């Protein structure tokens, strides 16, 4: 069987593996049917004790005596908990993680998703501006990374299969492609 005939099978297997990677991480799972995953909904209801799952970019990390305060610039999240880097930020919130969390691991600009219970709001500053932060007592969190990959479009080899010595240029010449950024 030729490699060209197996290409669709490889594509299907690759797609299945990629979809398996998009599952919700264990640290972000909840059985709560009332779980809030939308920042604007949380802002409008904001009841202490509501369970929320939100994500975004780490803006700052402060280690306190018994907890770590993480300020997050909110981005909408997908069903798998991943922050959507193509969307505009919707605001900020604070998460308190029990114990010590290394500020190098939770460095500024990292993508993070948090699961926790809503707490009373707190006033703090963003620069010189006084900001009313919604607060989460964190039960679990997951750090994400952005990976770039290049996808090459080799349409000619699918439309015009070529065999022989004179096909070398069409097979190995310049190709069109694009860079894809994925949150993993």
Summarize the structure.
The protein is of the alpha+beta class. The chain has helices at residues 3-20, 39-45, 155-159, 168-172, and strands at residues 51-63, 67-75, 91-98, 111-126, 129-144, 146-153, 176-183.
Verbal overview:
This protein is globular. The protein has 184 residues and is α+β, with helices and mostly antiparallel strands. The longest helix has 18 residues, at 3-20. It contains four helices and seven strands. The model has no long low-confidence stretch (mean pLDDT 82). The chain has helices at 3-20, 39-45, 155-159, 168-172, and strands at 51-63, 67-75, 91-98, 111-126, 129-144, 146-153, 176-183.
H-E order: HHEEEEEEHHE
- Give the C-alpha Rg: 22 Å
Share of residues in strands: 35-45%
- Average pLDDT reading: 82
Number of strands: 7
Shape: globular
Query: Would you identify the regions where 5 or more consecutive residues have pLDDT less than 50?
Result: none
The helix count comes to 4
Major sheet: arrangement of strands: 1-2-3-5-4
The structural class is: alpha+beta
Largest sheet: 5 strands, mixed, barrel
Helix content: 10-25%
Distance between the termini: 35 Å
